[in-house]
Amino acid sequence: MLPTRSSSRRNARLTALNNGPQSCVFAGYPGFYIHNGKAYDIQGEGKGRPKPVTLHKGARVSFDLRYTPDSAKHEGDLCVTGTEALAWAPHGDHNSPARVPVTDTHGRVTPITACGEAISMSPPHHTQG
Q1: d(Cα 118, Cα 41) in Å, to the nearest integer?
Q2: CA atoms within a 13 Å half-sphere pointing along the CA-CB vector of 29
């Protein structure tokens, strides 16, 4: 989701839902990237080792994302544009990522253009549904 804008950095949020039959533990950062055709991708990167988050059935965990938009790119930055991201749970199968649509605050699919080396990810936190 792309909730806010600023001139040099943009904010977004990646949210995962436990739709399994029982509680689970989300331990670490998810795998995450936006891919540009057969070429370049920009991956999500978190700092340190976040505390595990227990997710009861139906609970959500979110990661706040910060990235450099095309309008603020620096010379030499590569940019990717897409309407979906690829994501997987920590310690999950990166060969079978989930395709996650990029949406605005109204739930409409919208393109994201991110530039630079990485998209920074906050530690996980519970969110309401």
Answers
A1: 9
A2: 19
Strand partners, 78: none
**How far is 57 from 71, CA to CA, in rounded Å?**
40
Contact 50, 63 (CB under 8 A): no
Long-range CB pairs of 21-27, under 8 A, 24+ apart, other chains included: 21/57, 22/57, 23/54, 23/55, 23/56, 23/57, 24/54, 24/55, 25/52, 25/53, 25/54, 25/55, 26/52, 26/53, 26/54, 26/55, 26/61, 26/89, 26/90, 26/124, 27/52, 27/53, 27/90, 27/91
pLDDT tens digits, one per residue of 41-81: 899 999 999 999 999 999 999 999 999 888 777 777 788 99
By residue count, the chain amounts to 129
